[in-house]
Amino acid sequence: MPEENTFIMVKPDGVERGLVGDVISRFERKGLELRQIRHLNIDEDLARTHYAEHVEKGFFPELLEFITSGPVVAMEWAGESAVSVARTIMGATDPKQAAPGTIRGDLGLAVTQNIVHGSDSTESAERELKIFFG
Questions:
Q1: pTM score > 0.85 for this model?
Q2: For a FRET experiment, which of 22, 27, 40, 54 has its CA 20 to 30 Å from that of 14?
């Protein structure tokens, strides 16, 4: 399998709870390589660009309020099958359905406050990496 790049973001709840190091160590222990990292606050314009596919959905106002509520840590990770490997490490979007041992299963509280965002395909990884790293 060829090497892939993927985008992972520790959301405001993960940063606020001091979980950035735990999140990073889980990806490192799996064998993925951290290529870029950036600490930032997401403004409304960046949030609308990043979550463009959700702008018209009913939950978007809550998502917008949450993702702009505090700093995030944006990262580029690389490795064999990085997108699917990262999604396995993160677990199901809903922490109540995420398996124990996954980030969301161990640490997540709600669908919105689920600690991390990760690209769901190589195409979305490419798009998201451009948004956050140029």
A1: yes
A2: 54
